[in-house]
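Propose amino acids for all 93 sites.
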């Protein structure tokens, strides 16, 4: 019985470690995403306001996304990538 409990606890701990690792990777990718929006925006010479107008979004929304303080929908990711004339995947590299 004790052996089974130990195995179950080991599995739970392993799942927690894997989940924690996935969260760290996700957060790193989101930081890359935020930095890349700014990078590509500046390469195009756009202000936040100009990019927002191209995307039909509010300037403060663009600012918050660049600061990684706002969740972004998949739809808006595609809209921003289109406005920046880049492939979506490049925002996540």
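Proposal:
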């Amino acid at each position: 019985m004790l052996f089974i409990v130990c195995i179950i606890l080991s599995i739970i701990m392993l799942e927690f470690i894997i989940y924690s690792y996935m969260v760290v990777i996700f957060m790193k990718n989101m930081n890359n995403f935020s930095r890349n929006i700014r990078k590509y925006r500046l390469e195009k010479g756009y202000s936040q306001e100009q990019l927002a107008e191209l995307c039909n979004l509010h300037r403060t929304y663009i600012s918050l996304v660049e600061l990684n303080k706002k969740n972004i929908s998949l739809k808006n990711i595609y809209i921003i990538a289109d406005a920046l004339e880049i492939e979506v995947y490049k925002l996540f590299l």
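Helices lie at 2-44, 48-55, 59-66, 74-83. The chain has four helices and no strands.
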